[in-house]
């Protein structure tokens, strides 16, 4: 912790070495996986579906965050609001919370498809998914502008600015996480309950439903594992007023953990579409036809 009460990066040699190795691996894997996912989603898949629209936007947001990550880490050395600091930290924050918003939107879309299938035809379409994604980009961008304006009033936008008082800007971060967490948890539990209640007409449908259920739990677990520790520590950090060294280290470690979501998202893209395609398809057609029509039918969740 610095003398002015802001958290500084740890300067222990072994911590810095681990940090560089972790960040390097994260960048290489994240850029490769998200770049590949974006290429497959945009160029190799047909037709455009709601899930595909959301996943393209999520991959793009994760790529933006990864591209900003080295500049963001470098900007943590700045103690003034330089243009580089404001731009890199702004892009980093915007895409973190855009990713949270898009993951939540996917969960809501999945909930509508499973829990309200009769309404889903009117509520779900690729065009509406594009509108939701556009609204999220605008919302996050607008909130970032407000956060910047509030940061100026509080003495600075950048994290290491010694005159920065972070109460208001921290509130923006917390509001960008806890409401989506509640929505994601509710939708995930509802989808799992709906899948459990769905009668299985054969072993193939039962197997697909089990895989889809595991995927819902896995998506929720990854979200909670990556983002909840950081925001819990951030909540304590905000409540403490003046951070302690232990809080600073906890914020540093949990922040690194939240960055891993970029790679885990990319790994989940394939399964996210495939498992729900199978579960929904097998639930809506006779088992004898399921294998023959799996590649040609329009499915509900992808």
Automatic annotation (TrEMBL):
Keywords: Cell membrane, G-protein coupled receptor, Glycoprotein, Membrane, Receptor, Transducer, Transmembrane, Transmembrane helix
GO annotation, cellular component aspect: plasma membrane
Entry's Gene Ontology BP terms: phospholipase C-activating G protein-coupled receptor signaling pathway; positive regulation of Rho protein signal transduction
Compartments, record wording: Cell membrane
Keyword hit for Cytoplasm: no
Chief place of localization: membrane
Membrane topology: Multi-pass membrane protein
Gene3D superfamilies linked: Rhodopsin 7-helix transmembrane proteins (1.20.1070.10)
Keyword Chloroplast annotated: no
Domain G-protein coupled receptors family 1 profile: 33-269
Transmembrane segments annotated in the record for this chain: 22-41, 53-71, 91-108, 129-150, 170-195, 216-240
GO MF annotations in UniProt: G protein-coupled receptor activity
Family stated for the protein in its record: Belongs to the G-protein coupled receptor 1 family.
Designated name of the protein: (raccoon dog) hypothetical protein
Organism: Nyctereutes procyonoides
């Amino acid at each position: 912790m610095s003398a002015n009460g802001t958290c500084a990066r740890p300067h222990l040699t072994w911590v810095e070495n681990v940090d560089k190795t972790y960040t390097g691996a994260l960048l290489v894997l994240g850029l490769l996986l998200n770049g590949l996912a974006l290429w497959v989603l945009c160029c190799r898949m047909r037709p455009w579906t709601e899930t595909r629209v959301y996943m393209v936007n999520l991959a793009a947001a994760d790529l933006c965050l990864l591209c900003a990550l080295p500049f963001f880490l470098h900007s943590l050395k700045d103690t003034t609001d330089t243009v580089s600091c404001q731009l890199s930290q702004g892009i980093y924050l915007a895409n973190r919370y855009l990713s949270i918003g898009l993951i939540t939107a996917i969960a809501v879309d999945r909930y509508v498809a499973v829990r309200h299938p009769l309404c889903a035809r009117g509520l779900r379409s690729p065009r509406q998914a594009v509108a939701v994604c556009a609204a999220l980009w605008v919302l996050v961008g607008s909130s970032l502008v407000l956060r910047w304006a509030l940061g100026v009033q509080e003495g600075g936008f950048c994290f290491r600015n010694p005159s920065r008082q972070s109460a208001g800007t921290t509130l923006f971060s917390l509001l960008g996480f806890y409401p989506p967490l509640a929505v994601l948890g509710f939708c995930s539990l509802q989808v799992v309950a709906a899948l459990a209640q769905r009668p299985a007409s054969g072993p193939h449908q039962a197997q697909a439903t089990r895989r889809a259920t595991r995927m819902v739990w896995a998506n929720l677990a990854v979200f909670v594992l990556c983002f909840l520790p950081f925001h819990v520590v951030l909540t304590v950090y905000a409540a403490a007023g003046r951070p302690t060294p232990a809080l600073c280290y906890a914020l540093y470690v949990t922040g690194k953990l939240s960055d891993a979501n970029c790679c885990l998202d990319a790994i989940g893209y394939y399964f996210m579409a495939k498992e729900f395609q199978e579960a929904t398809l097998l639930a809506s057609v006779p088992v004898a036809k399921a294998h023959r029509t799996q590649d040609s039918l329009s499915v509900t969740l992808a």
